[in-house]
Amino acid sequence: MIQTLEWTDNGVRFIDQTKLPTKETYVTCETHEQVADVIRTMVVRGAPAIGVAAAMGIALGVKNSKAETVADLKRELDQICDIIGKTRPTAVNLFWAIRRMQEKFERVRIRPLAQIKQDLIEESKRMYAEDIAANQAMGRHGATLMPSEGGVLTHCNAGALATAGYGTALGVIRAAVEQGKKIHVYADETRPFLQGSRLTAWELMKDGIPTTVISDNMAGAVMKQGKIGAIVVGADRIAANGDVANKIGTYTVAILAKEHGIPFYVAAPISTVDLECPDGGSIPIEQRNAKEITHIAGRQMTPEGVSIENPAFDVTPAKYVTAIITERGIARAPYEESLHSLASTETKVEV
Questions:
Q1: pLDDT tens across 45-62, in order?
Q2: Is 236 noted as a catalytic residue in this protein?
Q3: Selected catalytic residue, list 131, 188, 216, 236
Q4: Rounded distance, CA 9 to CA 52, Å?
Q5: pTM of the model
């Protein structure tokens, strides 16, 4: 299994996704500030992975604290959470992880300082294990929706690299292949950060799953040629009404899918569902550095001084989403009802 991130005695270790696919290198963060930086710079990316990384960053910050009282440790915890919370505004898993770590602190604050620190470390490790188990459960649910053979298109990277392991959208594909389905993946390159061509293709080739990379503007033509039987993508935040924020370009793919009568599926854990967000218009959209557009491999590709728009995400309205696959089951319209029902389910995924 690809080791996206892990807790070690020396700190939190990440595979450097900015170096893939040509170099498989790892970085170890020894402070929570360093963890915040790898989240911000997309050394680690993908909503579930960001959530686990945030939890481990908080645990690392608490572990390093020199506080001598619980009150002082609480103040430091708040500062740590504030730093990590300012890294990626769209991925709701980030804020879910911060809340969970804060709630854990409140439950154990009556214990000795050393025990509080260890409890928070164990909580972050538990979230890591839960994420992998959730992805595997999601894969089992979603595999039933995949064609028995033929092409499946995906946009961005929603695989092991975007999670603690196994993947959301790619987890569905992996599970379908494990069940004997003969799937050929078409991976959008996903400009401007090229998560599809760099990361999705790298993952799937490691697994021996047939994969073809296409440019983003080829998706419609490939659908028209009858090569795509289903589309499955991940999500960074899902609103209560089923609107989905995912990597920029997902909205375009969803409209093309609707035009060609192809099912469009979203795979994401329940932690990505934000029931406090009524619709897609309420989802904050991260704006990233213009250089991701103007430069490729350090070489400038646009005229000096030209205006640049670089939103990291767009929002796909629920009416284009055939179903939302979670670890607790599959949600369908009306999403206000189905998502709320799944989010309220107490069933836990076995770790």
A1: 999 999 999 999 999 999
A2: yes
A3: 236
A4: 17
A5: 0.94
